[in-house]
Amino acid sequence: MTDPIGLEVREDGVGVLTLDAPPLNLITRAMTMRLLALCDQIAADPRVRSLVITGAGDRAFCAGADVGEFAQVRDDVVGKKLTRENRAMTAVATLPIPTIAAINGVCLGGGAELAIACDLRVMDADATVGFPEILLGVFPGSGGVFRLPRIIGIAGALDLLYSGRQVHADEALRLGLSSETAPAGSALKRALERAAVLADRPALALSLIKSGASASFTQTIDDATAASLADSRRVFTGPDIEEGLAAFFGKRAPHFTALRTAHVRAIENTQEDA
Predict the structure, then answer these.
(1) Strands annotated E in the chain
(2) Which fold has domain 5-199?
(3) Residues 106, 63: contact at Cβ < 8 Å?
(4) pTM of the predicted structure, to 2 decimals
(5) How does pLDDT run across 232-244, given as a tens digit for each residue?
């Protein structure tokens, strides 16, 4: 059986995860389980310093769930499908590295939920994104209803979720749903360029920025301040600041090589202290 998702780890520290079930790269249960396994692999591999997710072919990033599987799961859609999909989307969202969705072609339903689980989205100029579940009598059950409002605000999110309409790249950029529009056919190229820049930045600081920003939605100001101070202690006593200061005073570009595993060790030590 063909692997529904491929993973390449480039020499520059960029991982490239490709949904490989063209022409539409539909999300199946097999793809969901593979995505979960790959997220575990990526999180455990300190060589991967940033990640790009894209779709094979030129028609779709991902056109959503495989409706052909619905007959097999309707009697227990939560147990057989949605619980796993939510785990997979959360696994993507909580990877300790910057993630970028390179959106080519259509990006719909579960594909759009995967895209908004990423930190950034780069869209081809002719790509479209939408959440059409309402037109089937359901709603986005794998993160769309709570991740989309955090990205574009409640009013914009409800407009897209209520209507099920697709938006083109220019409107997605205006809404804040997309981070950048690339010329048609070049979203992957542009996403890889941005990912390479991020892979060259301090991995520990990036991971702490990501976790701090995500946690802020459920923290009080006092809790967020305490967490930020604890994270500041980690970066100011970590290896990257020495390189950063040396580069600053030497009037050169910094070259950060320390691994983000320092963050994992810091978390483990905190848990042990508790």
Answers:
(1) 5-9, 14-19, 50-55, 60-62, 99-103, 106-108, 120-124, 128-130, 166-168, 180-182
(2) 2-enoyl-CoA Hydratase; Chain A, domain 1 (3.90.226)
(3) yes
(4) 0.92
(5) 999 999 889 999 9
